[in-house]
Amino acid sequence: MAAFATAEACDSNAELISNGDLRALHPIFKIYGQRRCFSGPIVTLKVFEDNVLVRNQLETKGEGGVLVIDGGGSMRCALVGGNLGQLAQNNGWSGIVVNGCVRDVDEINDCDVGVRALGSNPLKSTKKGHGEKNVPVHIGGTLIRDGEWLYADSDGILISKTELSV
Ligand SMILES: O=C([O-])CC(=O)C(=O)O
To answer: What does the entry list as the binding residues for a divalent metal cation?
Structure first.
């Protein structure tokens, strides 16, 4: 995929920004994974300290998509670790954004996938299978809908209602 720059995308899409179709997430995420720059259509998940749905989703073909996980901002355990990072890479996900924590950071950093999360915590999550898929989630000051597009690079993360021509 051609490299893009989120700053450039903001400058050249002022109208989309003013009407709310292009939004920047608040700068609350840390950068993990090999891909500092990634983009794709969004699949949303809403879970709380339980990552069964995360694994189920990453076991499917990603086809260049980005999994956006609203973990409610919990800092008490990790929703994604090295195994799931590897699964995401092998199944063709371009990235994972977690409103929550990751673990096995060194392993995730070896994976060919972009990962953003609030931080890391070595504790694993529960495995009950609770949560919702393909629902609107509220992360980093913006509402994110399943099927919208995400663009991430070193400057930050953009959410766009439609695919941008970059
Ligand atoms: O299964 C988990 O809880 C997450 C994890 O450690 C991994 O992906 O390796």
So the answer is: 104
Domain enclosing residue 18, as ranges: 6-160
Mean pLDDT by 10 residues, the chain (166 residues): 84 96 98 98 98 98 98 98 98 98 98 98 98 98 98 98 90
Specify the CATH number for the domain of residue 103. Answer: 3.50.30.40
Total domains in the chain come to 1
Token pair 């060194």: residue: 106
104 labelled binding-site residue: yes
Interface predicted TM-score (ipTM) of this complex, two decimals: 0.92
User: If you take atom 3 of ligand 1, which residue's CA is the nearest one?
Assistant: 124
Residue 130: alpha-carbon gap to chain centroid? 19
For residue 82, which atom of ligand 1 is closest to its CA?
9
User: Is 165 within a domain?
Assistant: no
CA distances from 154 to 6, 27, 87 (A): 8, 11, 24
Q: Please, are residues 89 and 58 in contact by the beta-carbon 8 Å criterion?
A: no
